[in-house]
Design brief:
single chain; about 270 residues; alpha/beta; Rossmann fold; six-stranded mixed β-sheet; 9 helices; 13 strands; globular
């Protein structure tokens, strides 16, 4: 199967500093891949570089097997939809018009219908005629995600799609992206909530200091050694009726010993993250 997205030996330089180094990753149709890591680890840079929105110092990026560098903007838009981290909107357009911006190249009636369907999928169909500047930040975030869904692209790239949302909305956003994957799309999303990442993603790509630590299923990617290396945390995933929860504590001092057991609920100063 051809990956919807592939990067090989990807490196990005800012000035003299290599902020992303030798990253190789594939994302296939039907899966959700989460990109996780501490602030400044390179998550946004990786997503932008993979789409050709950031100049590469080394390596190559491919969409559906085609070199990104050789694609025109319309060709790239047909292969990938992108939700940036920045949620700024300059014009107070109705929500459906913002969502319809994702339906590039479709007749107006079809774009309108696709926009309404995407808004409904995210529970904001009732806001279709409301100006996006007259909404809460969380409502606006859902409208912008609807724009991504309306692209119908075979690859969906979302930079922190759940940031700033309440817990129910976070789960709904990731369920929506998972539904797109079940329908055949490939999804890659950067996330900060590690419990959400463990529940929503098939695989996790863990970044630390601009390098890829591991790409694996959540239970392996969030094992104690990787939590320590990438986040400076002492912890692990623990089971719950609702799904895995990350129980962790900060390694406040360099001599903090590991917890004697992470097989059950978090203990001591720790808690769910």
């Amino acid at each position: 199967m051809t990956p919807a997205l592939e990067v090989r030996g990807l490196g990005v330089r800012r000035g003299r500093t290599l902020v992303l180094e030798d990253v190789t990753l594939q994302v296939f149709p039907g899966e959700v891949v989460g990109v996780i890591g501490a602030n400044g680890s390179g998550k946004t840079t990786l997503l932008r570089a993979a789409l050709g929105l950031q100049a590469l110092a080394t390596g190559e990026a491919f969409l559906a097997g085609r070199p990104v560098a050789a694609l025109s903007d319309p060709e790239r838009a047909c292969l990938a939809g992108y939700l940036p981290q920045e949620r700024r909107v300059s014009w107070n357009l109705p929500a459906w018009r913002i969502a319809a911006l994702g339906a590039v190249g479709r007749p107006p009636a079809a774009a309108h219908a696709d926009a309404l369907g995407a808004l409904a999928a995210l529970g904001v169909a009732g806001l279709a005629e409301r100006g996006v500047l007259d909404m809460s930040g969380g409502e606006r975030a859902k409208v912008l995600l609807a724009r991504l869904i309306a692209t119908g692209a075979p690859l969906l790239v979302a930079d922190e799609p759940a940031a700033g949302l309440d817990p129910d909305a976070q789960l709904m956003v990731m369920e929506t992206l998972r539904a797109r994957a079940r329908a055949g799309a490939a999804v890659i999303a950067s996330l900060h909530d590690l419990t959400l990442a463990a529940r929503a993603c098939d695989r996790l790509a863990v970044l630390a200091g601009g390098r890829l630590v591991i790409v694996a299923a959540p239970t392996e990617a969030l094992a104690p050694p990787h939590l320590a290396a990438a986040f400076g945390l002492d912890g692990a995933l623990v089971a719950s009726p609702a799904g895995p929860i990350l129980a962790a504590r900060r390694r406040i001092a360099s001599n903090l010993p590991p917890s004697p057991s992470w097989g059950g609920a978090a203990a001591g100063r720790g808690g769910a993250v």
